[in-house]
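re: ur question from the group chat, yeah i did fold both. here u go
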Amino acid sequence: MYMYTFGWCNGIQEAERLGRLGFDYIECALVALNLEDEADFAVKLPMYLNSPLPVQAFSIFFPGDLKVVGPEADEERIRRYVHKAASALNKIGAKTAVLGSGKARHFPEGWERNRAEQQLLQLLARIGDEFEGTGVTLAIEPLNRKESNIINTVSEAVMLAKQVNLPTIRVLADFYHMDEEQDPITTLIENKDWLQHIHLADTGRLSPGTGQYPYAQFAAALKASGYAGMISAECTVHDPEKEFAASLAFMREKFM
């Protein structure tokens, strides 16, 4: 009996294979739904509604050209997009939506960090309100500094979530970004009340079990945190059939 359910971040076309190999769910990119194009979204939605494996999580929340901080932030476009996202996620039955979106949240030179934080707090409050009653929780994803110049550690993400203070806003811990930023594994325990979702990779951002990441330590801290929920692999894959199966066996073994 596992405390956790295991999924993989991939396109909807991989749902059948992941299900056959024993995964519990698939995590897809929200941008793949093309929410801003009504006709294309209508064509794509049935694939997610009728997926052979539940689409319980979505990442890549905003398209890169939809800036949510800085002078280019288009409040009306953001409002429309978030509203459509909440509706789509609810229809599909997703439990978690991940807000990484490094390009969308990267604030430009000359823009004060404090102003960027205020914009993010407004955005999180908007998403939190839209998600109320949908069954979906937003997980703020800390990204390493090569991908985003704001929210780089789990504690920073929790600081924002605490300020918004809505039950629909929580935080994700990503082993790859934590390793890149040298974010201590103990942060999982320190921020245990705020964890909504977990992303995994291994050395070189490759499949779990192929590198030298300290998985025993990570798994022990996650268990000590009391987290019981979804764990998704998010990484580069060279040989899907082989790596999916091997990584699932590895994750199940490590996180028993």
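okk and heres the other one u asked abt
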Amino acid sequence: MSVRQFTKHYETPRQVASAARHHAWLAEHARALRLPALTVVGPTNLTYEWIDGRPARTEDLLALAGLLGDAHGTAWTTDLRPASLNTPHHFRDGVAFGDYIGPRQTALRRRLEQGYLPDRVALHAMLRLLEKTAEGPTAFYKDSNPRNFIITEAGDIYTVDTDDLTLAPMGYDLAKLIATLVLTYGPLPASVVDSALRAYNEAVERHDSRLATTDRERLDDFLALHAVLTAPYAGRNGYRHSWAPQPCPRGSA
């Protein structure tokens, strides 16, 4: 019986090496995430085992929030405890693990050039918000959008696409998942978002009580950043809904 596989192609060998390195790091330091086996590393492609299933939906949010919290707690415990959000970390082979601030400063300036921010005043406001969020214990960002999770018929959750990996604060990648679920399927009730945040914090806190640093105000700050950073993808990749985050009234969650 033949084993089904999936091959992803890249433009350069450097991109191949980066994605393979990310896969190996996640397998070692984010063990809660079930990854398809990487079977072949080619000059310009990677081949993985094929996973049958569907992308994540809104009803999966609670389980995924707990999964991310567990993965972020494990990564902090095993590798990211000494990492600083403002400074590139390093993989075992010495290659830099992108920091939180630098790549997003570049992306926000690009959003102004692309017309997704109205003026430099708005840009400076977003840059200040980015700097405000660059505190607390360090997690990783893996672009947790619905397409990057595969839910099997048995209910197993696989995490796919290891192209993007940077440092990020606790809760930042949960906010990316919430934002992209809304863009894909439509608005989420505030109570659902609050429940997902509680599930995330409970999961990460099991690794260390100091890691449950994300309250609703901080989550809203992350969502505001993602609203700008994901703006160019509206109408693409299944993002059929428009969305601007509505902050939770302070003190209500």
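fwiw on the second one: The beta strands are 5-9, 38-41, 45-49, 54-55, 89-90, 96-97, 138-141, 149-151, 157-159, 166-169. The CA atoms of residues 2 and 50 lie 11 Å apart. idk if thats what u expected
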